[in-house]
Amino acid sequence: MGYEELFPPYNMEWHGRATKRFANPFVGEKFERIDVDPVMLSHAAVACGYTIRDFYEKPELGYSCLVYMYQLYDLLPVGHWFYASPWLAELGCKMVQKDTLPPIPDSTPVETLEDVDKLEVPSEEDLRKGTTYPQYQRLYEYVQKNYPHTFVPISYGFDPVGEAAALCGVENFIMWTFTEQDAAHKLLDKFTQTAINGAYCTAKDYGSAMLVVASVLANNDIFSDEAIREFSVKYMRRYIDKSFRGGAGPQIFYHCCGNQETSYKEFHNLIWSPFTVIHFGYKGKDAFPSELLVKEFGNRATCMGTVDTKLLINPNPKAVYDQASKQVIAGRDAPRGFILGAACECPPYTLPANILAMTQAATDHGTYGKW
Hints:
Blueprint (H helix, E strand, L loop, with lengths): L11 H11 L1 H4 L7 E3 L5 H5 L4 H6 L1 H15 L21 E2 L7 E2 L7 H6 L5 H5 L3 H15 L7 E5 L1 H9 L1 H10 L1 H26 L3 E6 L9 H21 L6 E8 L16 E8 L2 E2 L2 H8 L4 E6 L1 H4 L4 H15 L6 E5 L9 H14 L6
Parallel strand pairs: 1-10, 4-5, 5-6, 6-7, 7-9, 9-10
Antiparallel strand pairs: 2-3, 7-8
C-alpha cells in the first residue's frame, strides 16, 4: 500500500478553486481572497498522527500529509517538501535524522583554512549520484504519479551563509567574516555553486525549477547591514543569476528570516522576475510590518506578510487573528499581490486553531470585492 492510500481521495473541486486563488498575484486576477501559506512542513505529519522524523525520513509520507492538510486548512494547491540543509551531504557533511528536528549535519568537513581550498564543488554528474538530488527525484516521481496536479519542481539554494557555516562550524564562520574573509567567501562560493548545479539538474529534468534562497543566519542579530550585503545578498543574487542562465526559474522565493531590522534595504539588490515572492521574518522582535514590506518591495514582487511563529504555538487564536488581520489590511493592496504567511516555518506543534485563525483573517479582511 502506498502512503497516498492512507488518505481520503484528493478533492479536485477544492483544488480548482485553490488554484485560481493561488494564481491571483501572478496573473493580475482577483479571485476569492488573499492566499495563506504558513510555510508548513512537519506540522502536516504531526497533525496526521505521525512524527517530525517520519516527515523527513519518509518524504512520500510527508508530502501526502502536506497535500491533505492543505485541503483541510484551505491553503495551497501545490506542495513543497524540503529541509533546510540541502547539498551539505555532497560537500562532506554527515546528515543525521533526528526525532524532533529536520536532518542536521553532525560533522564539519572544513576544520582549517587549508581545508577550504581542498573542498571540491560537486558537478551535476556528482549530484545525480549523491544524496540530495536523488531524494528529490524519488519524491518528484511519486508526486507526478499520485498528485500530479500539485507538482512544482523546486531547487533549493536555501541559506548560503548558514550552509557555509555548517561546513566549518558557525563560530568559525562568523569569526572568518572578520579575520579570514577570503576563506569565508570561498566557502560561500563553493556552496552556492553546488546549489546552482542542483538547479541545473532540476531544470534539465523537469523543464523548470522554482528557486528558493534565503538569508537566515545573516540577520541583524548577528551581522551588520554591510556584512549581510557582502556575505548574503551577493550570493543570493549569484545563485539566481547563474541558475537562470542554466534554464531554472522563473519563479523565485526569497525568504529573509530572523531580524532584518535595518538590513532589509540591502535586499533591493536581488534579481527580480515577474514570479517573485519576497518574505521577511522580523523587524527587531516584532513580525516584519506589511506596510513597510509593501512600501519597499511591492512594485517588484508579491509580498508575503508574516504572523509571529511564537503566536502559533500559544493557545490564543484571537491573538493570531488580530495580528494576521493587521498584516492583511496593511498589505492587501500591494501592487503585485500579497500572501499571508508565518515569520518562518510553521512550528511542528502549531495549534490547528491558530492556522484556522490565519485563514479566517484572510477571509474577513482579504476577500476581493469586500474592501
